[in-house]
Amino acid sequence: MARLVIMGGGVSGHTTATFAKKWLGNDHEVVVVTPNSQWNWIPSNIWVGVGQMQKKDVVFPLAPIYSKAGIDYRQALATEIHPNGKEGSDKPFIMIESTKEGEAGKTEELEYDYLVNATGPKLNFDATPGLGNGKGELGGHTVSVCTADHAVHANLELKQIFEKAKKGERQKILVGTGHGMCTCQGAAFEYIFNIEHEAKKAGVRDMIDIKWISNEAFLGDFGMGGLHMKVGGYAVSSKLFAESLYAERDVEWIIGAHTSKVEDGKIEYELLDGTMHEETFDFAMLIPPFAGVGFKAYDKDGSDITDVLFAPNGFMKVDAKYDAGAYENWKASDWPETYQNPTFDNIFAAGIAFAPPHLISKPMSSPNGTPINPTPPRTGMPAGIIGKAVAHSVCDMIKNGKENAHLHKASMAEMGAACVASAGKGILDGTAAAMTVYPVVPDFEKYPGTGRDTDYTFGEIGLAGHWIKHILHHMFIYKAKLKPGWTLIPE
Amino acid sequence: MKHEEENFAKSDQFNLTMIPGSFARKMRTCKIWQLFRFMVINIKMLIVVSKSH
């Protein structure tokens, strides 16, 4: 009997674990280690952040789902990887520290035959002074929608802003990225237009100035170097698409910005031209940069081999081309296909946890040397697809042996993504920008013009996207709960 | 002044882009048109999903 241990129970980890258990059955063991007791459908945190959903609508407890599936669930934080075992034993293991009520802090060695790192990111609030509280958590000057609890807090703060606006006090809202190396602009993009929509509904839009701040070199970059889509018979850049939306909704923007400091009601930021500026706010939601969760790896003799498994940013090395060099040399083939660690063939990384070979957007920095560019997005659909491919590969290795196994591929250069950014939540009230991009990483050898297939890279605004957003919310929570027919729902 | 022209005057940023007129805005919430678009977008998304696996 082989044991597969999956670190992380988010979109990618949950997908890997549930498919692996389905394919392996009871002949082998599947263990999930995650510090969280609840699964969170993160895209809908946006609606929690504007009070259109409650926390209970976007989370559910993991224990009963894993119990039903026959998955061994450990509510714990994985801290160390020992891929060669320890003195006296060749069996690889990880160290875990319980986060379960009543057992918090209890450590345990958990042996594995195969290991999947699907931890997602560390929300690195402390990378920007004042954005964090100095202990790695969200500080007191801004809000966040990265977790369900953050979103609940964001909504409470937002309601106070609306109340002040109703009393005739002019308010200023700032939404965007809290550092020059952030990703996940899409979440902030969706949040700002939900705020705008709710402000209109509350009758206070005229009393609120809403501004966007981002590390993107141009609006609509989204960490993918922008995209070209067919709109109204034209093939247009996402820059024009995004700028049009912001102008229509009266939302001004600051782009190419590295937020360098956050204080009470004020941020300092550096622009790509090297100039320093300040912006005041009454309410700000700034996305933090992501980093690896900070695993340490040790060899059999206790020596530190963290740099063998992980890139300097803390994400796990996989089968990517990390020495591609300058932007001009980047190719779609630099991107990983199997997500297998090059040193240890029984270790994989899925979702945000893998180290990308380089950015997707063109690298930029200010004359002061400050890098200001979005890092590659790896959330949502790509995270799920990668998780399933990794589950396939590990199951083949377990069933057929490493030599005969077929490693499944899921390169982001051959994978699309669908993104639906809503504004509002009612079925007939509100619109959404529905976008698909294919592939996520542009392939200029295959698609010399724009790097992407413009038949399947498109975007439009309307009720239709809004309905799709509702359906996705219910469909993916249904799937994650492993209800009948869950495998028929695609990632 | 037409609705879509109001924001052009508000800032240089807005002045240099395009803003949808009343017809485009109406189509975004026209239920019959949006039902058609719903089917089209879903088909396109399913193709993208199938190409990605």
Largest sheet of chain B: none
**Number of helices, where a helix is a run of at least 4 consecutive DSSP H or I residues of chain A:** 10
CATH topology name of the domain at 3-123 and 291-400 in chain A, in short, is FAD/NAD(P)-binding domain
**Roughly what fraction of the amino acids of chain B lie in strands?**
under 5%
Q: SSE layout and pairings?
A:
The complex is a heterodimer of chains A (491) and B (53).
Chain A (H helix, E strand, L loop, with lengths): L2 E5 L3 H14 L4 E6 L3 E3 L4 H5 L5 H4 E3 H8 L2 E11 L10 E6 L8 E5 L2 E4 L4 E2 L24 H19 L4 E7 L7 H17 L6 E6 L14 E4 L2 E4 H11 L3 E3 L2 E7 L2 E6 L4 E5 L2 E5 L2 E2 L4 E2 L8 H4 L37 E3 L31 H20 L16 E7 L7 E7 L20 E5 H18 L11
Helix pairs in contact in A: 1-9
Chain B lengths: L2 H4 L5 H4 L6 H8 L1 H22 L1
Question: What descriptors fit this protein?
Answer:
heterodimer; A: 491 residues; alpha/beta; FAD/NAD(P)-binding domain; eight-stranded mixed sheet; four-stranded parallel sheet; 24 strands; B: 53 residues; mainly alpha; 0% strand; elongated
Quick summary:
Chain A has 491 residues and is of the alpha/beta class. Chain A has ten helices and 24 strands. In chain A, the strands form seven sheets. In chain A, strands 1, 2, 5, 6, 7, 8, 20 and 21 form an eight-stranded mixed β-sheet that branches. In chain A, strands 14-11-10-18 form a four-stranded parallel β-sheet, with helices on one face. A three-stranded antiparallel β-sheet of chain A has the order 15-16-17, with no helix packed on it.
